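Tip: read the tokens left to right.
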């Protein structure tokens, strides 16, 4: 299958990976943040001083006890951080570099669906799968209509890797596993067959077009849209490969390859490390040594999480962006400047007409204001919905209107590009997230 995305925009930013330089880093400690897994109500299973192995349960879901988050390393629990009302923030694990693993009891045949779902939930990998609608973690009770997998990331500065023969074999094993979970199709979206060869048992989809073509929600909307009463599973090929590895080796693979990018990075590169790695270990000696403030983002510049050097790599564990903060910049006319170095999609600014690499900072550049019905959301959201009217319905919690306008098809990340480019300066992602949680609470 081939689909071509017309609407959207690729942001040309400085700091992309050029020469595919790869370094390996062993973190001194790692951390798991339950808030990265939306819909997971965490209860901690460990305390400071407890020894753990790879695969040892760290959290379980309050409502679905078999749904767990597990340790990516072997070592010792050194911190359980809580926030207001004793809300769990993170658990930090000191890495002993031994990677002693708890074995997973994988049956020789994959015919028992219930036991397979339980294994997937207890391994911690089910929490890496998102359920649509509502964009929350998958649950063993789900009966997904289809399963969608994306093999590329179209977000700014993201790196899309190629896959070798071993990766393909592991993913094929996982696809065979998923055929026991769903009676529908398993779709794998890719840029081309050169990036990822055909996977037996899966419907391969070649996708062309600008960002957000790599978003699973966009792919679903252009392949087989979801309707009310249905649910589907969405995941990345990283998760798919990890599931295949678990099935083949009866243990977890917690390694990851991180793209370290951004204009404040000396040499953008790939880093092989462990999921949840300490950011100090990843960034030590790799950032520009100037006196300007910088923003460290675990993820891409549109949807990532702002962290500091004391933080950790956050889910989905594949990208770190470092850009200027902008709070120490003194420029003539500020946000109203017509400098050609400013990135813009508006023809009112010279940057609209320049094909160059831009270096934007983290400022909003203007105060928040009333929503401007400019049509920009529809210009960069390649879905058959009216995005601006959906935002207005979401802000007013009008469930009937949200349903009619396609709330079940979207996730916050689908509005990230529009949020970045919009002159209204409105937090579209937060609006969609809050509305999805609201409608889920009302209907479930």
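Filled-in amino acids:
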């Amino acid at each position: 299958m081939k689909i071509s995305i017309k609407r959207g925009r690729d942001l040309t930013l400085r700091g992309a990976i050029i020469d595919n330089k790869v370094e390996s880093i062993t973190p001194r400690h790692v951390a798991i943040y339950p808030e990265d897994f939306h819909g997971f109500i965490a209860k901690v299973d460990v305390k400071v001083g407890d020894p753990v192995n790879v695969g040892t349960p760290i959290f379980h879901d309050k409502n679905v006890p078999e749904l767990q988050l597990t340790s990516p390393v072997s070592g010792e629990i050194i911190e359980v951080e809580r926030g207001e009302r004793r809300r769990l923030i993170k658990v930090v694990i000191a890495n002993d570099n031994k990677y002693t693993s708890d074995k997973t009891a994988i049956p020789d045949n994959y015919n028992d669906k219930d036991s397979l779902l339980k294994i997937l939930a207890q391994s911690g990998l089910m929490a890496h799968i998102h359920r649509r609608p509502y964009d929350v973690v998958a649950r063993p009770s789900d009966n997904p209509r289809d399963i969608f997998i994306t093999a590329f990331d179209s977000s700014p500065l993201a790196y899309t890797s190629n896959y070798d023969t071993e990766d393909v074999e592991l993913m094929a094993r996982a696809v065979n596993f998923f055929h026991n979970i769903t009676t529908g199709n398993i779709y794998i979206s890719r840029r081309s067959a050169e990036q990822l060869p055909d996977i037996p048992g899966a419907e391969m989809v070649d996708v062309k077009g600008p960002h957000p073509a790599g978003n699973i929600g966009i792919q679903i909307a252009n392949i087989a849209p979801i309707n009310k009463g249905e649910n589907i599973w969405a995941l990345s090929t990283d998760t798919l490969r990890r599931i295949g590895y678990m099935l083949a080796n009866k243990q977890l693979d917690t390694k990851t390859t991180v793209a370290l990018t951004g204009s404040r990075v000396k040499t953008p590169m790939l880093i092989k490390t462990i999921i949840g790695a300490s950011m100090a270990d990843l960034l030590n000696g790799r950032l520009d040594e100037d006196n300007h403030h910088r923003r460290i983002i675990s993820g891409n510049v549109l949807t990532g999480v702002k962290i500091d050097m004391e933080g950790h790599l956050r889910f989905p564990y594949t990208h770190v962006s470092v850009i200027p903060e902008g709070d120490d910049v003194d420029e003539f006319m500020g946000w109203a400047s017509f400098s050609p170095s400013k990135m813009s999609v508006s023809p009112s600014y010279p940057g609209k007409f320049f094909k160059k690499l831009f270096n934007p900072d983290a400022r909003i550049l203007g105060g928040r204001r009333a929503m401007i019905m400019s049509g920009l959301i529809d210009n960069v959201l390649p879905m058959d919905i009216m995005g601006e009217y959906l935002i207005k319905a979401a802000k007013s919690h009008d469930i009937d209107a949200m349903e009619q306008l396609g709330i079940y098809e979207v996730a916050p990340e689908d509005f990230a590009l529009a949020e970045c480019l919009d002159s209204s300066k409105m937090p579209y992602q937060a609006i969609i997230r809050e509305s999805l949680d609201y409608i889920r609470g009302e209907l479930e």
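The domain at 107-250 is CATH 3.40.50 (Rossmann fold). The chain has a mean pLDDT of 92.
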